[in-house]
Write a structure and sequence with these properties.
Layout: H1 3-15, H2 17-37, H3 41-54, H4 59-71, H5 76-90, H6 94-105, H7 109-122, H8 127-139, H9 143-156, H10 161-173, H11 177-190, H12 195-207, H13 211-224, H14 227-245, H15 248-260, H16 265-269, H17 274-277, H18 282-293, H19 301-314, H20 320-330, H21 341-348, E1 353-357, E2 360-366, E3 373-374, E4 387-392, E5 398-403, E6 408-413, E7 416-417
Helix pairs in contact: 1-2, 2-3, 3-4, 4-5, 4-6, 6-7, 6-8, 7-8, 8-9, 9-10, 10-11, 11-12, 12-13, 13-14, 14-15, 18-19, 19-20
């Protein structure tokens, strides 16, 4: 027996073996945690191995080693062994679930399947375990098997909205649209004020050819959506609904709305070129936008109107009649509204600002995104495109777009926006 071992045993006799070992294990685990936190994963794993050689039932080390091996895609069999040991001690499937989702997120669907199937067969499962295995079946196109797993998840947790969503998608892939709609109705019943739930049902209704009902749900989703990004997402979905209806112009118009929200996908992925559908004239728009960026000294009415036409062309709507309507609606009588540099900087710094617009003075609250948005189609750094900061009143009924020079280029009231020839539902 080694001298080190003899000293260890002697210390155990004097001080109590359980207490001494526990102090040693806790210290080693704390050291392993520090190494992993500092990014020294290999050293962390060595220390975790040392902890578990002393006590194979030390659950924090079992959970940590399983997660570390899974995250670095190492020793899958060890992952299963550690998780089985952990779950046997804790009587919980939580770590199987956590690592199963980790594999899914990293595209390791084969490992996610093996892990969730192993957990289910060993009796350590909950609704999430079935969601994980069902998701891998779905990705493989095994929709019947996926359907059974999602149903099992709902048996275990009847109000699990994620499982409902996945089951709806599975029904759609199988062509069972009536079942998909029934499940979508149930989802909306559980969450009547949830934009995603209504959006999911809108998608099913569109697939069934019930376009007016789909547009109704989509409008509700857009009203409920929180933030600029959410609005852009549902504007995209609306563009695709109109595409399925065969309405090219409305599809492209809503693709423009999505683009203004930072979502360029529909504008460039619809079945037809929106530039042509909306009569987009890039060279003319660029010229007039440059004039708007560098205005003439006299802000006469015709000069303002030219700039309005330029912005109208930039979003694909150069109709003189529509531009005149916008001029009247905006009540542009003399000068464009301007604010000083301090106000612009306050908006960029996300501070509330009192600004007088055409129908009164309101407290405008800047958007949560400090970055300047592009007011028109084009890249942010392009010389000819204007960049704006968006601000709204607290109730969301009024919006302004202000360029970096303090010119208010857009003022939204009652659903209309200067330069935006769309009435938002």
């Amino acid at each position: 027996m080694s001298k080190k071992r003899i000293l260890f045993l002697f210390g155990s006799i004097l001080f109590g073996s359980a207490t001494f070992a526990q102090v040693n294990i806790d210290s080693l685990f704390a050291q392993a945690s520090r190494e992993m936190k500092n990014g020294n994963l290999d050293q962390g794993l060595i220390l975790l191995d040392s902890v578990l050689k002393i006590d194979n039932y030390y659950t924090p080390a079992l959970a940590s080693r399983a997660y570390l091996n899974a995250a670095t895609n190492q020793d899958f069999n060890q992952v299963l062994d550690d998780l089985l040991q952990y779950s046997t001690i804790t009587k919980s499937a939580s770590n199987f679930v956590e690592i199963g989702y980790l594999y899914l997120e990293n595209g390791k669907n084969d490992l996610a399947f093996q892990l969730s199937d192993f957990a289910i067969n060993k009796g350590f499962f909950d609704h999430n375990t079935y969601i994980i295995r069902g998701s891998t079946f779905f990705e493989l196109g095994q929709y019947k098997e996926a359907e059974q797993d999602f149903k099992k998840a709902l048996e275990l947790k009847s109000d699990e909205r994620y499982a409902m969503n996945l089951l709806i998608r599975t029904y759609v892939e199988q062509g069972s649209l009536d079942k998909a709609l029934a499940q979508a109705n149930q989802l909306v019943e559980i969450s009547p004020d949830d934009d995603i739930a209504l959006g999911i049902r809108a998608g099913v209704l569109a697939r069934m050819g019930k376009y007016e009902e789909a547009l109704s749900d989509n409008s509700k989703s857009m009203q409920l959506a929180k933030g600029f990004k959410g609005r852009g997402y549902f504007a995209e979905k609306r563009a695709y609904i109109y595409q399925e209806m065969g309405n090219k112009e409305e599809a492209c118009r809503w693709a423009v709305v999505a683009m203004r929200s930072g979502n360029n996908t529909p504008y460039f992925s619809l079945r037809y070129p929106c530039d042509e559908v909306l009569h987009f004239d890039l060279s003319t728009a660029n010229t007039l936008l440059f004039r708007l960026k560098n205005p003439l000294d006299d802000y006469d009415f015709q000069g303002v109107k030219e700039r309005l036409i330029g912005m109208g062309i930039a979003i694909g709507t150069p109709s003189e009649k529509e531009i005149n309507f916008l001029v009247d609606k905006a009540q542009f009588t003399q000068l464009p509204i301007t604010i000083d540099t301090v106000m612009v900087n306050d908006l960029k710094a996300e501070k509330p600002v009192n600004i007088a617009v055409f129908d009164g003075e309101y407290a405008f609250v800047p958007s949560t995104d400090k970055e300047l948005y592009t007011c028109t189609k084009g890249e942010k750094a392009d010389l000819f495109y204007i960049q704006c900061v968006l601000a709204q009143t607290a109730d969301g009924k009024r919006s302004i777009w202000v360029d970096e020079n303090g010119v208010i280029l857009k003022y939204t009231e009652e659903g209309y926006t200067i330069f935006e020839l769309l009435k938002i539902d």
